[in-house]
Each structure stands twice: as structure tokens, then as C-alpha cells.
Amino acid sequence: MTDTIIIGGGHNGLVCAAYLAKAGHKVTVLEARDKVGGAAVTREFAPGFKVSACAHLLYLLDEGIQKELALASHGLSMAATDLATMAMDEQGQHIRISGARIEGANVTDADQAAMTEYHRYMSRFAAVLGGLNNRVPPRLGTSTGKDLRSLARLGWNIRKMGKHDMRDFLRITGINVYDVLQEEFDNELLKGALSVDGVLGSFLGTRSNNSVFCALHRMSQGGRYSLPEGGMGAVSNAIAAAATQYGAEIRTSSPVKRLLLDFDQVSGVELENGEQLMAKTVVSSADPKTTFNQLLGPQHLEAGFANKIKHLRSRGCVAKLHLALDSLPVFTGLGETQSGNRLLIAPSMNYVERAFNHAKYGEYSEHPVIEITLPSIHDDSVAPQGQHVLSANVQWAPTDLKMGWAEAKHGFTEAVIDVIARYAPDIRSSILHTEMLTPEDIEQQFLIGGGHWHHVELAMDQFLMMRPVPGAAQYASPVDGLWLCGAGSHPGGGVMGCAGRNAANAILKTNRG
Amino acid sequence: MRTVRFDSRDHYRNKVYPSPFHSRQKELNGLKEWSRWFDYLSVPAYTCPTMEYFSGRNTCGVFDITPMVKHLVSGPDALAYMNRLVTRDVAKIKPGRVGYAVWCTDEGQVIDDGTIFHLREGVYRLCSQEHQIDWMMINANGFDVNIIEDTHDVAGLALQGPTSCATLKRMGLTGIEDLTPFGLRYFDLDGIELMVSRTGYTGDLGYELWIDAGYAELLWDRVFAAGELHQIQPMGSDALEMLRIEAGFILAGADFMPAQHTVRPTHTRSPFELGLGWLVDFKKPVFNGRRALLAEKENGSRYALVKLDIEGNKPADSSYVYSSTNKNIGWITSAMWSPSAKKNIALATVETPHGAVGEEMLVEIYYQRELKWSRVKAKARVVKDAFFDPPRRRQTPPADW
Q1: Chain A nearest-CA residue for B141
Q2: Could you tell me where in chain B the CATH 3.30.1360.120 domains are found?
Q3: CA A297, CA A496: separation in Å to the nearest integer?
Q4: Mutate to test the interface with A, among B107, B134, B138, B147 (most CBs of A within 10 A)
Q5: Please, which residues bridge with residue B112 across strands?
Q6: What average pLDDT does chain B have?
Q7: Interface test with B, best of A139, A142, A299 (most B CBs within 10 A)
Q8: Class of domain B70-138
Q9: Least CB-CB distance to B289: which of A263, A293, A302?
């Protein structure tokens, strides 16, 4: 007899399972696919070529979780750490961005000075947000000591930045990355690359409000890019191993069809194969719309809450391109040693904004923003000797494409490779195999409603005590026995694990009474 | 007479429509005054509000209820939908029956009150005070239901008073006398379907008549022809207001603020705070506001709505209410001198724990005599029952007049 069921064996579901099992809960994880990991998964896409099929860079995973679950002892190691970001230039005049340091042919002292200041305050502001990542958000409008203390702590953390930084924090957090970068920098290429941090994974352009907030979220755990040995699946496998060691049972190929109710509370789940599993606590790591609209059914919720869930913004907009390559691609002006970094094709902020424009009207961009990694440079296990894997996030490509993805996919794939070929002219000749995952594919293969990385858009109105919506922001749903632990909950997606751990803490606290 | 044509491109230019009974109301409206009731012109008083009030208590008053907002809910999930929407158990309202109901926000605050007519198996009419179609569509998410607002398609007339049954009998509605309170029945009026429910907003013997709006004038003419011997009179909204206060019925916008029209969150009211706890059925696993109302039941309510019997004869409109120790504890929401109960009556909102039946309070009444203002602090007592509650209200068959 299990007392806790966790729906979904993605990294957050597994983290939640590990912490609950560690505290003595009898936990069963039900994963729909044949292996765990969700969007943090490694899979073979061509014979001998493996790739992190959805998320491909590790930059948010919480250090505390890594230590507490001893992920290193469960096989997690890094193939590369502290990757630089290369702002790619067609003529080869790239800029290398590593923390606050920038290098490149056209980088001036003024650019470096601006970057030093920008990096200073952005890191500082990000740390304030990051300080919230490991906390259950406070409730508004209550007078309980815990909630008030939590709000006071947030206020104090902002206040203690001092007058100058506090004012700037309050000024820029809600506005757009275009205006802030325009204030600081002259270098178009640098601004283009930095602006991507504000929009990657979100349905926002550089001039959209909330884009500064997204950039801060991206930096909220330090903002350093790593590649796990064996791909992102290694992260999930290590967490799964920790959970299993603590006694959690993980069942793959067990898709949940619906939640079972006993009068007004959740009492278990029914699997697609008809099997019923009963449990007092059911924790869903699925996105909120899937959890409430499909697994539970909006008719079992009060109408105001159901309506808020219905109107969550969760349009995915990133496609994923995987290339199996016969040889290492040569990017103009980029040495072999630099090719293993995070390569960004975003030559200017206007280029980024124009790429976004199409998505607003249900079209894909033929000149998209592209974030490229070549993990095989660092990790021999993902490609045959001498051959390579290219993994790229491509933005924007909206889930709800007007012409339909079945018809558009081929043309889109060719357009993306054409853009990459402007920077690596000979790349087409070395392509052995191509896989393109549109947001629609991501939705279906990784079971994320809307195909959105963060399940629901990361934005100030869908963050902290408002994520996913008020009434479910402390991981407990309005239906007794049903909890949330996925990216749709605070503090959101990216392979971080905090939502899973915070949910476990909230559940343990409630069960202790 | 159809007065609203939504197929016309210009329908939005009209803000207020004449009622389908307008041609008849116009002839009888001696004061030539019109008021607005949402989408329609309404008559505040035809000749004299007091005389019209007495027709509702002593003979038969006719009031046009067409402007009342009406919705039709049908489809396989109609019952489940209604049960999630309102706080009471709709399964207990059998076909051919009518039930009073309130519905709430998730916070357990009353959005509106109204009546549910179970027209035919699985087909419901919801009549409300306020426009509700937006909230009703929001509520449809996840249910297989058809919802339409048919306010403009259905004309309604309320016949209220002791001779209302006799009037309908004379009109040829055979068997109307067997209709019990909160029952509804269909009749044939010259080949047109006429629905009659034994309902009303006066706390007296009375009926409401519902017909396709295209046949409104036919209905009006037949009702007035049959009622001539029974002293039938048209009645305006001023008279109805007096009748409903005597009956102790609350009015949205007067005795409580509809939750969705309220800016300040503490100014809304729960069903418990309106004395409507009997409409809340926690035996249903889910309905809007359930969680909040369970918590309120546990932790207590902030306010109580009370009926006050006040000494003297000066109506206590908009007065403050004080405890017997002179502490300001609330305010009057509706007040009048009741001609039938011969009492100075009022509905009031008071802070809990005040409001127990029998509790003595003070009401600060400001009144004017030939422009000179005076003030009196009158004693008042909380009473339990309606101020005027004649046995004929429930009697079946009603006495013949």
C-alpha cells in the first residue's frame, strides 16, 4: 500500500519523490513514458547518436538538492562546466561572454565597463529572486506569522540592497530587456545575445514586459552553464536512483488516465490500462492545465479557480533541432576549442524582436534565434568517435501554428539549417541525420500541455504566490489530497528541482499537522 | 409584440427597450413616468403606489416581470452544472417545481439570488436579478450543457393577491387551483403554450405567467378581461418594493451588494450572512464557494441580516443600528411602515454576534417635518418570521373570492 502517488517522473516529480521517500513516505512514481526524465532526458535519435532531447543545458539545478540527494554518488558528473556564451557573427567577429568578461574583435573598453556594471546588478537582483526559489510562497491576505515573516524577508532583501540598487530593482524588474540593454550598451551583437536571456523559452519579444524578469530567473541560481556527462538524462537518472534508494517505487509506461475522487477529495488514480491505485496524497508534476482540466476535470473545481486555470498563458514557442554530423562543423572565425560553448545566433535585438513577430500571428520565423550546443565535443558517449551531435533550441515556433506543423515542419527545418549554414557554411555536407521537434512534438513526446518549457509562462503575474494561480501557489490544490510539484508551480521550470522539493516540504509540513 | 431584434445590425444603438407589454402599459400609465430596469422600460407607478400596493394585498395586482433576466439551461449535464453553480441541491427540485437559490464566488460571497424553474426533465430556467450570462458561460467549462439567455424571448406577468387564482380560473386555466406553492404547470392559451408558476415576490397568494414574447399583448388582454370582476389593477415597481419588504424578501443591490459588482472585498456577503444558510447544502461534493463556506461555518460569520420591528411610525430608511448599550453595530437596508402588519418594519445588517431573534436594538431615525429635521432613537426588536405572512399564501386550493 502506497500513501503517496506522484504523477510524472520528470525531474521535479523525482525530486519530490526522493524527498518524500527520504522522510519515510511510501511513494510510487507513475511515469507515462518508458523511461524517467520528462524533459530532462537523453535519447538516441540516430544510430550511435544521443542527445538531450528537450532541455540541453544545465544552469539552474539547485546545489542544495545535488548535495542532499548525493547526486554525484548516483552517477551525476559534468562533462563541461562554466561554458561561455558566444554571440555569433556571420563574418566571424564573435563576442565571447563569460560571466562579466567579454572578448571579441569589436569589443571596446566602454562595452566591457558597461558589461561589468550590468553583470553586477543583474547578478545581485537575480540573487534576490533566487533566494525565493527554495521557499514555499507566502499567502497574501493572511495574518499568519509565517506568511508575514516570509513577505517581510522579501521586502528586507530588496531594501538592504541600498537606495540605488533597490530603486533600480523596482524600476527594471517589470520592464523589458530591450530598454535596459539600450540604456547600457552600444554594441548591437552584444545586446542581441544578452537579450536572448530575457526571452528564451518564453512567449515574449525583447520589447515585451517581463523579459527582464525572465533574464533574472535564468540567472537566479548563478547562471553558469554546464553539460552533464551522458546528457540531461543523467540528471534524471541520478535523482531516480536517489529516490529508489530511499525506497520510492518508480513505474514507467504507466500513464495516468484520471484522478479518482472520494466525495470531495482525491483518493487515487486510474491508469490508462484501467488499473486503479489508491493513495491519500496524489502529487502531480504534470502542467496545471493537464492536471486540472484532463486528469481531474474542471467540473470538479469551483468555477472561479477553473477559469483561472483555463486562462493561464502556456503557449510553447521553442523548437528543438538535432543534427547527427559526420565531422565537427566549422563556424566561421570560431576555433575548435570555442565551438563547445553555448553558441547564440541573435545578431541584434531587432533581429530577435522580428523573429518574435511571426509567433504572435501563428507563423514560425525563417530567421529565428538559435541556441546551439555541440555536446559531443565534451562527451564521447553521445556520438561515435570523430562524429558529432548538434543540439539547438530554435525560437520562435509557436505551438498553434496557423498552417499546421505537419505541413510546415519540412520547410521550417530547412530554414533553420540555412540560418546555421550562414555561420557554418559547410555544415550541410556533414549532416547524417536530422530530427526536428516542433513545440507540437514536444507537447506530445514530453506530455507538456502547450509544449511550454515552464509549463506556464514565466512572468511576474504568474510567479511566486501567483504561480500557477492564487489558490494553488503553495503546492496544495483546492481539492484535498491533490498537490502540484511541477514547473507550473513556483519557482518554475528549467532543470532546477526546487518546485519538487518545495512541494515535498509543504506536504511533509501538512502531514505533520 | 417582439421588441428586440438581435438580427438587426443596429440593435446596439438601443439602450433601453419597451417591454412587450408596452402598448398596454402606456395606456394605463397615468403618471407618464418610466424607470429603467436593465434592458427595459418599467413603470414605477401607474396611478398611486399605495393603491397599487393594496391591490397586491386585497385583490389582484399585475406586474410586468419581463425585464427579469432569464436563462435556459439544458443538455446531458444540466443538473450537474446547476448543482456546481448554486449552493443548494438542485436534484431536490423535481420537474414541475421551482426553487429559490443563491450562487456564490469561490470565496463564498453571494453573486446573486434567483429562482430555478425545472421546466421539463433536465431543462431548467434560471431567473436572476442581475445579468449572469458571463458567469454562467464561465461555469460551463467542463460540462455538456446548452446555455442561452432568453430574457427577450419570454414575456412574464406576475399576478399577485387574493383574487389572482379566481382571475386565472375565469381566464379558463382549468385546474389552476390545484397548483401548490412553488409548482409550475403548462396551459393552452388559444393554441399558445402558457406556463404558470405559483411563485412571486410578495409573500402572498400569487402566480407568474410566462409566454412567448410575441403573444404578450394577447396574454395581457386575457388576464385583464378575466380579472375585471376581481378588481384587477396594474401594479408598478414602487408597490412591489413595499410588498417584498413586508414579506421579508431581500433584494440584490439594496440589502446586499452582488459580489461581482463590489469593489471592496469586505462589502460582499455570504449566504449565512444573509440568513440563507438553509440554501447551503454541504452534502454536495463541490459547488462554488463550498470550501470558503465550510470555513465560515467553522469560524463564524462577520454579519447577520435581521428583520426589525421598530417602535413608532417613522420609517427608518438608511438609519444606523445600535446595540442596547449604544454601540454602533449596523445599518438599515430596507424600511417602511407596513400597512398590512401595522408595524414599523425594516431589514438591517448587523455585526455578529448581534442579531439573535429577540435581541433589543436601537435605531437612529432622522425624519423631516415641513423641511425641519428631527431625530429619534427608536427601540427595535429582532423578529424571526416574515412581517406579513397570510395563510392564503400556502393554501391549496386557494379560497375563491
Answers
A1: A298
A2: 11-67+152-247
A3: 29
A4: B138
A5: B103
A6: 96
A7: A299
A8: alpha beta
A9: A302
Cis peptide before B391 (omega within 30 of 0): no
Residue B36 pLDDT exceeds 90: yes
Measured distance CA(B114)–CA(B125) in Å, rounded: 10
Q: Give yes or no for a contact between B49 and B33, defined as CB atoms under 8 angstroms apart.
A: no
Q: In this predicted model, what pLDDT tens digit does every residue of A428-459 receive, in sequence order?
A: 999 999 999 999 999 999 999 999 999 999 99
Helix, strand or coil, per DSSP, at residue A62: coil
Q: Is B288 in contact with A304 (Cβ distance < 8 A)?
A: yes
Question: Across the A/B interface, how many CB contacts are shorter than 8 Å?
Answer: 49
The CATH architecture that domain B302-385 belongs to is Beta Barrel (2.40)
Architecture of domain B11-67+152-247: 2-Layer Sandwich (3.30)
Cell, residue B40: 427595459
Distance of CA A450 to the CA centre of its chain: 14
pTM of the model: 0.94
Give percent helix, percent strand, percent coil of chain B, each to the nearest 5.
25, 35, 40
Cα B347 to Cα B251: distance, rounded to the nearest angstrom: 10
Tally of CB atoms within 10 A around A223: 20
Helix/strand/coil for A3: coil
Rounded mean pLDDT, B53-73? 97
pLDDT at A513 over 80: no
A94 belongs to a structural domain: no
Q: In terms of Cα–Cα distance, which of B122, B128, B172 is closest to B150?
A: B128
C-alpha cell at B65: 416581470
What pLDDT, on the 0 to 100 scale, is given for residue B265? 82
Q: Is residue A397 part of a domain?
A: no
How close does chain B come to A265, measured CA to CA in Å? 8
Domain hosting A245: range is 4-39+229-313+448-512
CB contact (8 A) between residue A298 and residue B142: yes
Residue spans of beta strands (DSSP E) within A229-348: 249-251, 256-262, 265-271, 276-278, 281-284, 318-325, 342-345
CA-CA-CA-CA dihedral for B328, B332, B335, B340, to nearest 10: -70
CATH number at residue A463: 3.50.50.60
A393 inside domain: no
A263 vs B contacts (CB less than 8 Å): 285
Give the angle subtended at the CA of A447 by the CAs of A443 and A451, to the nearest 5°.
30
Query: Which chain B residues are within 8 Å of A264, Cβ to Cβ?
Result: 285-286, 290
Q: Pick from B252, B198, B247, B242: which is nearest to B45 by CA?
A: B242
Say how many domains are in chain A. 1
Instruction: Name the β-bridge partners of B343.
Output: B338
A33 occurs within a structural domain: yes
At residue B14, the pLDDT reads: 74
ipTM above 0.90, yes or no: yes
Chain A residues with CB within 8 Å of chain B CB: 261, 263-264, 293, 297-307, 310, 471, 478
- Residues A239 and A233 sit within 8 Å (Cβ to Cβ): no
Name the CA dihedral angle for B174, B180, B181, B183, rounded to a multiple of 10 degrees. Answer: -70
Residue limits of CATH 2.40.30.110 in chain B: 302-385
Give the nearest partner residue to A302 out of B77, B143, B286, using CB atoms.
B286
Residues 6+ apart with CB under 8 A from A499: A12, A475, A484, A485, A486, A487, A489, A490, A491, A492
CA distances from B295 to A300, B107, B292, B370 (A): 19, 10, 5, 51
Tell me whether residues A298 and B85 touch, CB distance under 8 A. no
> Where does CATH 3.30.70.1400 sit in chain B?
70-138
Burial class (CB in 10 A: 0-12, 13-18, 19+), A26: middle
Nearest to B317 by CA among B348, B342, B340: B348
